[in-house]
């Protein structure tokens, strides 16, 4: 079977600003090996991380190799992780990687059910107050 890396595919198709969802059932590290060269073309990366990916430190690797920020997806709560670590409560295994800061992501998600947990990146009260001010500006 012929395969092509995500980086090769993105180059050939001239793809940029992509939302990529990876669910490779434990082969996420191999997928990332083929995608890392195209990381500038990825706006949002949602990736399932099972034991092999976590054991290999893949979230930390993605943070280190790119300018992407990491958010652990716990249902409708996005929890920032500065170093790619998190305690995994089943059944939540997905991560979001993007270039948005927690505050920027919170604003982007204002009209959705998703919320950004402060995760130690400032106080939750300050973030909530800022979002309320920003929300009123758009009403």
* Beta-strand percentage range: 15-25%
Poorly predicted parts = 119-126, 133-139
Number of strands: 6
Beginning-to-end CA distance, first to last residue: 53 Å
SSE string, helices as H and strands as E: HEHEHHEEEHEH
Shape: globular
Radius of gyration: 16 Å
- Helix segment tally: 6
Estimate the mean pLDDT confidence: 84
> What order do the strands of the largest sheet run in, or round the barrel if closed?
1-2-5-3-4-6
**Which oligomeric state applies?**
single chain
Describe it:
The structure is a single chain. The protein is α/β, with parallel strands linked by helices and 139 residues long. The protein has a domain at 6-101. The protein is built from six helices and six strands, in the order αβαβααβββαβα. A six-stranded mixed β-sheet has the order 1-2-5-3-4-6. β1, α2 and β2 (42-48) form a beta-alpha-beta unit. The protein is globular. It starts with 5 loop residues before the first helix and ends with a helix. The model is unreliable at 119-126 and 133-139 (pLDDT under 50).
Could you list some keywords that capture this structure?
139 residues, 22% strand, 37% helix
What's the SSE blueprint?
Elements lengths: L5 H8 L4 E5 L5 H8 L6 E7 L2 H5 L2 H8 L3 E6 L2 E5 L12 E5 L3 H7 L6 E2 L7 H15 L1
Parallel strand pairs: 1-2, 4-6
Antiparallel strand pairs: 2-5, 3-4, 3-5
Q: Could you provide a short overview of the structure?
A:
The model is unreliable at 119-126 and 133-139 (pLDDT under 50). The chain is of the alpha/beta class.
